[in-house]
Amino acid sequence: xxxxxxxxxxxxKISEITLGNWVTHGSQVGDDAAIKTVHAALDAGxxxxxxxxxxxNTAAETVLGKALEGQRRExxxxxxxxxxxxxxxxxxxxxxxxxxxxxxxxxxxxxxGTDYVDLYQAHRFDYxxxxxxxxxxxxxxxRQGKALYIGVxxxxxxxxxxxxxxAKQLGIQLxxxxxxxxxxxxxxEGKVVPTSEELGxxxxxxxxxxxxxxxxxxxxxxxxxxxxxxxxxxxxxxxxKRFLRDExxxxxxxxxxxxxxxxxxxxxxxIAWVLQNxxxxxxxxxxxxxxQLADTVKASGVTLDAxxxxxxxxxxxxxxxxxxxxxxxxxxxxxLV
Length: 337
What we know:
Elements: E1 4-6, E2 13-15, E3 17-20, H1 31-43, E4 48-50, H2 59-67, E5 77-82, H3 98-112, E6 117-122, H4 131-143, E7 147-152, H5 157-170, E8 174-177, H6 192-199, E9 202-205, H7 237-240, H8 246-253, H9 256-262, H10 266-274, E10 280-285, H11 292-296, H12 306-316
Parallel strand pairs: 3-4, 3-10, 4-5, 5-6, 6-7, 7-8, 8-9, 9-10
Antiparallel strand pairs: 1-2
Helix pairs in contact: 1-2, 2-3, 3-4, 4-5, 5-6
């Protein structure tokens, strides 16, 4: 079964492998398959589910709500996010203004079929809204009982520090950040993780398999597989391009004997690797078919020894992205509509 970890400096526990539905529910797969996948996650011991209002323009939340219908709410941890455009994408259908946050939380709760979410996350930093306005709205959402905790996604160390201070002043808890993190993408290690450790903020990391590259299915000198994420712009093709250099794919091939020696599959090795970092509360995984989760959950509870970790670093060499300056390039400087 899947293990649990505390989220930030709180008494709240989440499953260390969390099911996300960014490019699957409401978009890549049909509702029946999506619902079966959620049920398979529950059967495997995953009780934490992450979505966002912008995924499939709100459809992903609706599918997740249907999938969790009839489950004991107290036994689930449901996360969603706000920031990116939704609906007809008018001028107030995006960002972290008070209006958009208040409209969005009500819409998310209705679609998810729940009275509250456990974690409500700022999907990006909003340079066009005063941070005081954003956190006052978040504080009101918490006090209204519509969210229990507040988190953010892809914020810089400085933004986390400022947001944490405002949350503290308002008497609410900012307990998480949701950045990209994998063996190949380690940009949070330089500034974001040390700052988060100081402030009592955990990471819930997305793309622990580097958009599927660390599964080993992409081969140097070969065309990308048909139907893979690299061929579908809606499924993160933009994100995966940086990892499709032949030199990177050759480095990933060198991980296979390391995984074999550890008694793990390549996806398990990738997920187990991110969970070795004590600041990581959960690895977000996606699945388009129920059977994909059977191997994924085996990464929970795995301890990689020092020799294995050193061998991974040696195999990947210079193909690792680790410049903390990359954390400043994620949030758009202007809203998208």
